[in-house]
Amino acid sequence: MEICYHAHIDREIESLIERIYPPRVCIDNDSCRDCTVVKVDSANRKGILLEMVQVLTDLDLIISKSYISSDGGWFMDVFHVTDEAGKKLADEKLLLHIQQELCATRSKGEICGDRELGNWKGAEEQHAATATATATEKTALEMSGRDRAGLLSELSAVLVELGCSVTSVTAWTHNDRVACIIFLEEASEAGPISDPKRLAQVEEQLQNVVAAHSGTGERKSVRLTTLGAGRTHTERRLHQLMYANRDYENCHGEHKKGCDGTHVYVGRCEDKGYLVVNVTSMDRPKLLFDTVCVLTDMHYVVFHAAISSNRSIAHQEYFIRHSMDSSGLPSESEKQKLTLCLTAAIERRVSRGLRVDIGTENRMGLLSNVTRVFRENGLSISRVEIGREGKKAVGSFFVRDCSGEEEVNPNILELVRRETGGSLVTHHNSPHRVRQSSSSSASSIIHESKESIEAKPRSSLGRMLWSRLERLSAGFRPVRSG
Q: Cα–Cα distance between 66 and 143 in angstroms, integer?
């Protein structure tokens, strides 16, 4: 008898299964000496893996190892996590919050990912915040197109002229492409821009800015919309905007090597009907999230996976099928596209340039003033993430000069400091690389890591998957709130 995979399951049947078999979450701080083990098993459904990973990464947890199995109607995921300092999770409130969030993904159907600046709250406070957010809305500007120096400065200046206040902005650049999401509100009265004519006016002006330096037929998109608060996950949406803008087309093909030593190989498992994807890259926070994002948005279903990191190198292995392809394994061109898209997803978040952290009192036109200083002094912004924390504006810019160098004139930074009137901290090392104990050891480890990517053979992680899962599945027990 032939067993076929069917991607679509009736939602009513799926909901019944979820009610009969609610998810079980076990948070184990005893079995592993240097990390907390989070185990989840539940009825399976489309997109559940991404939602689980999203919960953990939104809390700024580092996933050092993971085992995933979701064949059939059930799934089991095991995550080895630490905090940003590399320590086990000791806060009981945080452990309970993780359990509640992982269980909540089953009933939400779509996870609320608008947790600005990675902060988490206790259960009661989180519930109150969610109830408040449901009653409010946000105006979001989504923009993608060709990157050019001064683009963010021009956009923010137009928003000030139109009487719009920026509450947060996140922007990525990759392969001469840019994608950004800016949340706005009326400067005269706090709240979303609700008047359709007003929305159309603002959108038209922003489209003119983007189109001013765009070539004929060039891909670009500007969209202004009103969204329910908390319903859009900014980083996943940025991945989607970049993918739609085809930033992956300029990645290195032929399997395989991205500009940061990223290697992606896509093979076939003929007898099981799987594609086997092996990814080797420099390790960093949110790497698993970025990889699973692109697989989900390209409509691939992860049946099994094994993820691990060794010092500064990460290894990922996935057994996947395309949910919309009933004819069998994809063609060579589709495999090549998957290779390029995975490479692009990993490289988008690798920030290049001098990191400038800003913390100052929030005020109208702050973003416009800071980006103007960068533009007038010949600096380009490769990445930005700014948001509000109470009455303060907090976030980071990554800047470099026109030649791509990170070295920035200290006088320019002093001008930025005067514009913000607050604290300004610079970092010459990207925060998305693994932190090392000393600068001397860091250089030697990175050198060794790059050699290991290119030279050292590695046995398949999938071979270890089944024995690990069988052993771990016996240890499931619910976490106790104490």
A: 34
Residue 219's pLDDT band, with cuts at 50, 70 and 90, is confident
pLDDT at site 406: 65
What is the Cα 327 distance to its own chain's centre? Answer: 32
What residue spans define the domains of the chain?
Answer: 12-105, 138-249+351-429, 263-348
C-alpha span between 75 and 462 (Å, rounded): 16
User: CA 356, 362, 364: angle at the middle one, nearest 5?
Assistant: 110
Question: What class is the 138-249+351-429 domain?
Answer: alpha beta
Mean pLDDT of the chain: 77
Do the domains 263-348 and 138-249+351-429 match in fold?
Answer: yes
Q: What pLDDT, on the 0 to 100 scale, is given for residue 10?
A: 53
**Architecture of domain 263-348 in CATH?**
2-Layer Sandwich (3.30)
Distance CA 187, CA 178 (A): 26
Amino acid in the structure at residue 67: Y
**What architecture is domain 12-105?**
2-Layer Sandwich (3.30)
Exposed, middle or buried by CB within 10 Å (0-12, 13-18, 19+), for 360? middle
Q: Rounded to an integer, what distance in angstroms lies between the CA atom of residue 375 and that of residue 149?
A: 7
Q: List alpha helices for 257-396, DSSP H.
A: 287-297, 332-348, 366-376
What is the value of pTM for the model shown? Answer: 0.79
Range in 177-181, 257-261, 315-319, 452-456 the model is least confident about: 452-456
